[in-house]
Amino acid sequence: MASKHELSAFLGILPAVLYEYVLYPDSRSELLYLSPSSKEILGRPPEYFVEDVNRFWEMVHPNDLQQILTEDVRANKTRELFVSEVRFFHPNGQEHWLQLSSKPTPEQYNGVDIWIGYIIDITRLKDMEGKLLQANRKLQALSDTDGLTGLANRRRFDEALANEWARYQRSRQPFALILVDIDYFKSYNDHYGHQSGDDCLKAVANVLKETARRHGDISARYGGEELINIAIDTRLVDAQVMAEHIRQTVEALDIRNEYVPCGRVTVSVGVSAIFDQEYPDSAQLFKAADTAMYQAKSDQRNCVRVAEPG
C-alpha cells in the first residue's frame, strides 16, 4: 500500500478525505483506503464506499459523472496528475461541490498502479465564485451604462457598433443606425432647470429602449441630448419606420415646452443602414446618420431624414 504519510504531506492541513484506489484495464475501479473524514465530508463512513465504490459514483451529479470518469481513464493512461470538480448529492439533502485530485505511485495492487489522492469540499468556494461572478457582471453592466438614462454609454455603443460591423463583414447581415437629437434641449434646460432636463432625457431614452426590443438591439446615449439605436437585421426602409415611430411617440409624451414654436418636446432623427447603401467603414455609416439628423434639424425639426446614397 502507498504510505498514508505521503498523502498527509501532500495535503498539509487541508480538511480532506484521503484515499487510495486502483483503476483496472476494464475501467472498473476499486477503493483500497478511505480516511475517517469521509463520514464528515461525504456523509458516510469509509467502509460504505470501500465496500462498493459505485456508491460514490451514484452520488455524483449525473451531468458530471461521465466527465470525471473519462478524465480518470485519461489520467490513468498518461499517468498525469488528476484533478476534477463535481457536484455531489450529500446525504444531508444538499448538493455539494467536491474537488478530487490524485497522482500515481510506484506501488501496485493486483498488478495495477495504486493512485493516492484527496477529496475536499469546495462548496463555499464555489458559492463565493458565483457571488464574485455576479458582482463582476453588475460592475461590467455599470461600466457599460449611462448613469442618468440607463441606456448603454458611449463606450458600450462603440463596442457594439464595431461588433455589428464585423458581423456584417462576415455574414452580410444588415443593420441600421437611428440617431435621435432632442430639439431645443438647451432652451428646455435653461427655462425648466436641470432636473426637468434630466427627466426629459430619461423619458425620451425610454422611448428608444422600448423600440429596441430584439435581442442584439442596442439603445445608447451618444452624448448630451443625442441618443442612438443600433437595429440589427434591419434594412433602411424598416429603420425609417422605426425612426418615425420614435418621433411620434416622443411627441405624444406631450412634455410641455412653451418656449419653442410647437409648444412641446420633439426630436429630430437621422437614419442610415448598411446593405441598402455601402460605406467603407462604421465611422462613415455613423457619419451618414449624423448628417441625416442635422438635415432634419435644418429642415424643420420634429422629423425623420434618411441618409442619401453616397
Give the domain tally.
Answer: 2
How is the main sheet built?
Answer: 5 strands, antiparallel
How many helices does DSSP assign? 11
Query: Unreliable runs, pLDDT <50, ≥5 residues?
Result: none
What sequence of helices (H) and strands (E) makes up the elements?
Answer: HEEHHHHEEEHHEHHEEHEHE
Radius of gyration: 32 Å
The level 1 CATH classification of the largest domain is Alpha Beta
Q: What fraction strand? A: 25-35%
Please tell me what the overall shape is.
elongated
> Got a strand count?
10
- Under the CATH scheme, the architecture of the largest domain is 2-Layer Sandwich
CATH superfamily annotation of the largest domain: Reverse transcriptase/Diguanylate cyclase domain
* Averaged pLDDT: 90
Distance between the termini: 81 Å
- Can you give the helix content as a percent range? 40-55%
Q: What strand line-up does the widest sheet have?
A: 2-1-5-4-3
Which fold name fills CATH's third level, the topology of the largest domain? Alpha-Beta Plaits
Report the structural category.
alpha+beta
Notes on the protein architecture:
The longest helix is centred in the middle third of the chain and has 21 residues, at 123-143. The protein folds into two domains: 4-127, PAS domain (Beta-Lactamase), CATH 3.30.450.20; 144-306, Alpha-Beta Plaits, CATH 3.30.70. With 310 residues, the chain is α+β, with helices and mostly antiparallel strands. The radius of gyration is 32 Å and the shape is elongated. Helix 8 (185-192) crosses helix 9 (194-211). The protein has helices at residues 4-11, 38-41, 46-51, 54-57, 62-78, 123-143, 154-171, 185-192, 194-211, 236-252, 282-299; strands spanning 17-23, 29-34, 82-89, 95-109, 112-121, 175-182, 218-223, 226-232, 267-274, 304-306.
